[in-house]
Design a protein that fits this description.
Layout (H helix, E strand, L loop, with lengths): L3 E9 L6 H9 L6 E8 L6 H12 L3 E5 L6 H11 L4 E4 L5 E2 L4 H11 L3 E11 L5 E3 L9 E2 L1 H4 L11 E3 L17 H10 L3 E13 L11 H18 L3 H24 L3 H18 L3 H25 L1
Parallel strand pairs: 1-2, 1-4, 2-3, 6-10
Antiparallel strand pairs: 4-9, 5-10, 6-7, 6-9, 8-10
Helix pairs in contact: 1-2, 7-8, 8-9
């Protein structure tokens, strides 16, 4: 393809209910440049592949299909797919999510094209259920539009479905820690933030679907947060920047507080005792008393809930 500027990486596994909407949301993008959609199917056993093939016939070489005969795992499938992308810029949209702004790709490519000191950009995202019904008008709250490596890692969590990054900033070889992570996209974006600044545009350009077929969204609350702590610990062993390491310790402590609160709400005493011991341990790492950490975490959760509720009422 001549003038190929961007690639969209889409990994999928048993997404027959959602894949058509995901593909159509990409192919409806209005751009002044050529882009491709690279779909990596990880051994789906349902109708996902057949649906992808139908769209590939319709759009020709604008869609490339990479089919794994056997399931190679989400991390390997993710890496295989992004390194197969030929565009200067790479966006990500999993097979159960979809974009909602037809100018998303154009706006983000234009921004990075004119801001060479930025490594990637992102927007906000709304949460929807398996049927596409809105659960939240947006998922995160951001108070700035520019972040450095120090102000980014473990401080904010950009929705992957809205991100666009420079392909030439991908590492030639990923750290060993990356390959055992449950949250590969979290580590990838942290690595990219070392290469340049990060830009946030305050708009909603995509929908993140919470459903049992999702690799991450299908997990229960305990598993999601425990996986996040595992990611933070592995990132702590990799990054050497003192500010970033402090951010990671604070994030681990805050996440353990969230786990404690969930255990209390669900009346699970064994888990409550487990996370209580983790919080006491965290206090030695962060230098903060457990009570102050709990108080701050609850305050942040309340502030976020109030902002989201107010936005929902206005919409």
């Amino acid at each position: 393809m001549g003038n190929l500027k961007a690639s969209v990486s889409m990994i999928t596994f048993n997404h027959e209910k959602f894949i058509a909407q995901a593909i159509e949301s990409i192919m409806s993008q209005q751009t002044s440049f050529e882009f491709e959609l690279v779909i990596g199917d990880d051994g789906s056993t349902d109708n996902t592949r057949a649906i992808c093939e139908q769209y590939q016939k319709q759009f020709g070489n604008k869609i490339r299909l990479i089919f794994n005969d056997k399931n190679i795992g989400s991390v390997n499938n993710f890496l295989q797919n992004i390194y197969s992308c030929d565009g200067d810029f790479i966006a990500i949209c999993d097979g159960d999510d979809f974009w909602t702004d037809n100018s998303k790709l154009q706006k983000q490519v234009s921004f990075l094209d004119s801001h060479k000191d930025y490594s990637f950009c992102f927007t906000n995202v709304r949460s929807v259920d398996a049927n596409g019904k809105q659960i939240k008008p947006f998922t995160q709250i951001y108070y700035n539009d520019t972040f450095t490596h120090e102000s980014y890692v473990a401080k904010i969590t950009p929705p992957t479905v809205t991100t666009l990054f420079r392909k030439n900033m991908l590492p030639n070889v990923f750290p060993d820690e990356f390959k055992v992570l449950p949250n590969t996209d979290m580590f990838l974006k942290a690595l990219l933030s070392e290469k340049g600044k990060v830009h946030f545009e305050n708009s909603v350009t995509a929908s993140y679907r919470i459903n049992n077929a999702g690799v991450y969204s299908g997990l229960n609350s305990f598993k999601k947060l425990e996986d996040k702590i595992k990611a933070y610990n592995l990132m702590f062993s990799y990054f050497k920047n003192n500010t970033v390491r402090k951010n990671l310790l604070d994030a681990i402590a805050s996440t353990n507080i969230k786990l404690l609160l969930i255990a209390a709400k669900k009346l699970e005493p064994i888990k409550f005792l487990k996370y209580s011991s983790h919080i006491i341990k965290d206090s030695f790492s962060t230098g903060r008393l457990p009570f102050s950490t709990i108080k701050q975490t609850i305050k942040e959760k309340q502030q976020k809930r109030e902002i989201i509720n107010n936005t929902s009422k206005n919409n």
